[in-house]
Amino acid sequence: MKSDAQIKQDILDELVFQPNIDETQIGVIVEDGVVTLTGFVDEFPKKVAAEKAAKSVAGVKAVAEDIEVKYGDNYKKTDKEIAKAAVNALEWNASVPKEKVMVKVDNGYIYLTGELPWEYQKNAAKRTIQNLLGVKGVINNIEITPTAKPENIGKEIQKALERSADLEAKGIRVQVDGRTVQLKGRVHSHLEKELAENAAYKAPGVKKVRNDIVVQLYPEFA
Predict the structure, then answer these.
(1) Which residues of the chain have pLDDT under 50?
(2) Domain final residue, candidates 112, 144, 176
(3) pTM above 0.90, yes or no
(4) What is the CATH number of the domain that holds 202?
(5) pLDDT tens digits, residue range 186-204?
(6) pLDDT in tens, 33-64
(7) Can you give the residue range of the structural domain that contains 32?
(8) Number of domain units in the chain
(9) Read out DSSP for the chain?
(10) Domain end: 88, 116, 144, which one?
């Protein structure tokens, strides 16, 4: 059985392993496999990297991220500067349809709104701007309005899950109601749960995914 103390140490070791993270800035609390990250970083990408590192550790059931971004005086940007940079970055990203995403910046936080036909486009919009200087966080409120006709969604998603080398698809059940997909079952890591949701969103016609998959650790980590 992997204790909370072991999980915490593994997360700290993983943070040390990341070249862009100063592990001394990150606090880690683990309770029953649920991880809380605290502390301060000087760039938003470091905050994202810390959360990703924690989720990759075996034994982690969920991650609550409470890291604050604090830029030094030399790297601070006004909301106007951030907004201009974000709009320019989106215009140069071929994965994001032009003039479909609205950008609002408030105290360093970027709010994205609009409508796009695919989840990967929504994710691409966020990834495009989250590394910009001065950004403290990204709130992605873009709505998915699929244009493709939803045909055999359940079967297509199940096939995609079975093709993935990183998932044990036999533990996942797919239910479809119109353009909404519900995922049920059990996987062995938080990362697998996210991968299953990403796979479901790739199916043509999907607007919403309810991820009710439960993380059940391997016996040696339970």
Answers:
(1) none
(2) 144
(3) no
(4) 3.30.1340.30
(5) 988 888 898 999 999 988 8
(6) 899 999 999 889 999 999 999 998 988 888 99
(7) 4-69
(8) 3
(9) ---HHHHHHHHHHHHHH-TT--GGGEEEEEETTEEEEEEEESSHHHHHHHHHHHHTSTT--EEEEEEEE---GGG---HHHHHHHHHHHHHT-TTS-TT-EEEEEETTEEEEEEEES-HHHHHHHHHHHHTSTT--EEEE-PEE---S---SHHHHHHHHHHH-TT--GGGEEEEEETTEEEEEEEESSHHHHHHHHHHHHTSTT--EEEE--EE---GGG-
(10) 144
